[in-house]
Amino acid sequence: MIKSNFFYSFIVTSLVGCKNHDIRGGVRKFPDGFRFGTATASYQVEGAWNEDGKAVNIWDHLTHTQPCIIKDCSNGDIADDSYHLYKRDVEMMRELGLDFYRFSLSWSRILPTSFPDKINEAGVQYYNNLIDELLKYNIQPIITIYHWDLPQKLQEMGGWTNPHIVDWFGDYARTAFQLFGDRVKYWITINEPYQVCNMGYGDVDLAPMLNIKGVAEYMCAKNLLLAHARAYHIYDEEFRSAQEGVIFITCNAEWYEPATENDTEAANEHNDFQWGQYTHPVFSVTGDFPPAMKKKIAAKSAAQGYPRSRLPEFTSEEIEYIRGSSDYFGLNHYSTFLVYRNESVYGHYESPSFGDDLEALTYEKNEWKIGESEFTKYVPWGFYKLLTKIRRDYNNPPIYVTENGFATYGGLNDEDRVTYYKGYLNAMLDAIDDGSDVRGYTTWSLMDNFEWKQGYTERFGLYEVDYESPNRTRTPRKSAFVYKQIVRTRELDWHYEPDIDVMTIDEGH
Length: 509
Prior knowledge:
Layout: H1 4-13, E1 28-29, E2 35-39, H2 42-45, H3 58-65, H4 82-96, E3 100-104, H5 107-110, H6 121-136, E4 140-146, H7 152-156, H8 165-180, E5 186-191, H9 193-200, H10 216-243, E6 246-252, E7 255-258, H11 264-283, H12 291-303, H13 316-322, E8 329-332, E9 336-340, H14 354-358, E10 361-363, H15 380-393, E11 399-403, H16 415-433, E12 438-443, E13 463-465, E14 474-476, H17 478-489, E15 491-492
Parallel strand pairs: 2-3, 2-12, 3-4, 4-5, 5-6, 6-8, 7-9, 8-11, 11-12
Antiparallel strand pairs: 1-15, 9-10, 13-14
Helix pairs in contact: 4-6, 8-10, 9-10, 15-16, 16-17
């Protein structure tokens, strides 16, 4: 393993213009009121895929009809069995001393017909039990209404490319507010819209794997943003005054850094295309899709013979409906890419496609790898730059980091994950010191889970899950002990070495 202090110093000083994050100094304190949590998602942990009235979702359908499209031919039928083991999950959160737990609802578990004509009481009871167990120990629930597991019935009617999904999602969100809003004060509408649309509709990386490039992902983007805004306005107008909560969207944003001085425009456009297409409509002063994105796709579409841009336009009313529709900036972040644009990009991508519209290529440096997995790289300075750009571009919105994490191939002594978390928390503190309004931080993930097309081959958990054991035994890794220390002390100590013999509940927190 590369020594963390040397490695961190090397990558920061080897790129011009990167902030020198000093990790050799003393202990760093988090701001007063800063909150810590962990996250999971329903399909990835719940299991019980067909129990107690739950209907089929797009991941059930995909993994049952094309099982070996998943790397290890696995599925989420049982997963971590959190549907039955939720009390152990909460016990783990108590061991860590968490302030909150971010989890998602299964649309098809609550509304088996996909619509609110029938509410599945058994599914509702599961979430009631989980929420009440959390609150019993002063752990705040943060609920994600949609985290990728669309009911299969809705997918067969067009899913996120059908404009009626704005109504469907609004009805589902209203049902959730009615059922749980008396106790839940933090709502996330939709998790990672870029991944939903580009990887599921414009490619084959996620369900439903439509792979209709250059068209379907943009139809999805417009409808998804309107659906998010619908849920926001329903909460704002019908529930906020009584329930006194907050509601926001969570976007995944990796950092795209120019590979050379000549690639600044390409990197800026990559940030606009990859995450700006969802954050600019919500958080910018003007709203709407980013201007560079609109211009490039319109020009490409015209050259390709389309009668109008493949990127659907918003009406002026829709722009205003979406703009400002988020109380916080929910941010998922994992790594950084270097971006370049030269003649090799032309003809590199299918036409039409998102990649062909953007016309940029990316790569990661070999020295950014600190563990066995290729899934995530260690580039903390990219996190700092990302937080800084959000502060500058969007008038410093309050940020909740709703996911940040590192993949391994298993094992309890996860030094690489410890290095990753310390480095990224350190970079985040640098951004906070510079004025970024970051209010909370969420590790991905509480425990190992079904990692979508990677199955159970990539492990992100603070707790290791034994999938061979009948009760899905969860065992804390070294990173769990380190995270517990950070949460307990509200301090980041790079040199802290925990006693990892026994994990106990800190009743005093």
